[in-house]
């Protein structure tokens, strides 16, 4: 197992989609909670340090702390699901962990089609919309050559 | 996605992580403050061979800064996975660098490799978490020292070799602190306690 393992890349993708889903998870609550499960780590709120880099070669610096909520559940068949969400919404952290657990099972394709793909599409549209709105405010600067070189 | 993974072994730990960890840590402090007095340590569930009291001590004490040495009896995938998940403690193979050690009664005849601190930093010694079957089934011992008004009778079932080892590793302020755990109770034995077996002074 390493970072190029396709399974890991796929799981990273859906965990990212679930982390960004927010209120879009709510309509799936009944389906996600349909099977018996156990809380291995009940949802808990904490802080995590966000680090950043200035430019491609800059060294890492501490950008600041953010609130995260994490949760781990286990389904009756032993599969575990993990979630890390920005903010302090414990209920949705539990839903996202349940989704992660379901997505590792034999029903993966169905969960991808029903849950992840619509959420990913919606998030992509929101991102493009926002980018389009922002693009209209872009200002291009021109600099006249001052003849110093 | 069907590869066997350590997450398969995970079990819930404390029901109320914050409160239960505080209560367990307080009980452990109390156990060291009043050596020989059994304290309730029953907030955790048993984990494989680990009794609730032993697991409670682990959950209260261990984190990513505390390397742990595991006795072979406790070195199972179940215990490793749950300690790694709930405590995040590194599990080390060398006794010398461990800050905590999880022992059963079979490991008590050789404590020579555990760190008993230095003159400058006696607090950096290894703390022994020792699981017993019972805390009251042994021969009568008389404990004296800080935290005990006169003398306290304790009946821990421990082999004579343990007291010899403890004596051998003791050079106050250096020494080994011990917790004895069975079922849902724990007894503390700090390095400062002098233990008398019947009339003869052993430590």
UniProtKB/TrEMBL annotation, chain A:
InterPro entries associated with the record: Phosphonate_metab_PhnG (IPR009609)
Keyword line: Lyase
Coiled-coil regions, chain positions: none
Gene Ontology MF term list: lyase activity
UniProt-listed GO biological process terms: organic phosphonate metabolic process; organic phosphonate transport
Pfam families: PhnG
NCBIfam families: PhnG_redo (TIGR03293)
Protein name: Phosphonate C-P lyase system protein PhnG
Source organism per UniProt: Pseudomonas sediminis
Source lineage: Bacteria, Pseudomonadati, Pseudomonadota, Gammaproteobacteria, Pseudomonadales
TrEMBL record, chain B:
One Pfam family from the record: PhnH
Gene3D superfamilies linked to this entry: Bacterial phosphonate metabolism protein PhnH
Keyword Lyase attached: yes
GO MF terms held by the record: lyase activity
The entry's keywords: Lyase
Biological process terms in GO annotation: organic phosphonate metabolic process
InterPro entries membership: PhnH-like_sp, Phosphonate_metab_PhnH
Record-given protein name: Phosphonate C-P lyase system protein PhnH
Protein source organism: Pseudomonas sediminis
Organism phylogeny: Bacteria, Pseudomonadati, Pseudomonadota, Gammaproteobacteria, Pseudomonadales
């Amino acid at each position: 197992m390493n970072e190029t393992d396709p399974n890991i890349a796929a799981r990273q993708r859906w965990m990212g989609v679930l982390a960004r889903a927010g209120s879009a998870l709510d309509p799936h609550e009944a389906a996600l909670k349909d099977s018996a499960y156990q809380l291995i780590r009940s949802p808990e709120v904490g802080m995590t340090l966000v680090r950043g880099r200035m430019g491609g070669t800059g060294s890492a610096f501490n950008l600041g702390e953010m609130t995260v909520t994490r949760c781990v559940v286990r389904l009756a068949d032993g599969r575990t699901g993990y979630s890390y969400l920005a903010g302090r919404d414990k209920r949705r952290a539990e839903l996202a962990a349940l989704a992660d657990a379901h997505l590792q099972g034999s029903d993966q394709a169905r969960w991808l089609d029903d849950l992840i793909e619509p959420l990913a599409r919606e998030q992509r549209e929101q991102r493009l919309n926002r980018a389009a709105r922002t693009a209209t405010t872009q200002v291009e600067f021109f600099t006249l050559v001052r003849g110093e070189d | 996605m069907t590869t066997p993974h350590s997450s398969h072994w995970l079990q819930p730990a404390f029901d109320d992580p914050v409160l239960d960890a505080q209560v367990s840590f307080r009980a452990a402090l109390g156990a060291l403050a009043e050596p020989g007095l059994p304290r309730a340590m029953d907030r955790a569930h048993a984990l494989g061979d680990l009794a609730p009291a032993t697991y409670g001590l682990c959950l209260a004490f261990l984190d990513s800064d505390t390397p742990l040495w595991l006795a072979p009896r406790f070195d199972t995938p179940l215990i490793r996975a749950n300690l790694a998940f709930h405590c995040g403690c590194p599990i080390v193979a060398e006794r010398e660098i461990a800050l905590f050690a999880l022992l059963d009664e079979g490991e008590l005849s050789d404590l020579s490799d555990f760190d008993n601190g230095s003159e400058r930093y006696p607090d950096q010694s290894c703390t022994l978490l020792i699981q017993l079957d019972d805390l009251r089934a042994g021969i009568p011992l008389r404990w004296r020292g800080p935290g005990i008004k006169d003398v306290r009778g304790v009946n821990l079932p421990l082999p004579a070799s343990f007291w010899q080892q403890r004596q051998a590793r003791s050079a106050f302020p250096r020494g080994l602190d011990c917790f004895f755990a069975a079922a849902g109770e724990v007894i503390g034995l700090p390095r400062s306690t002098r233990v008398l077996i019947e009339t003869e002074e052993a430590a």
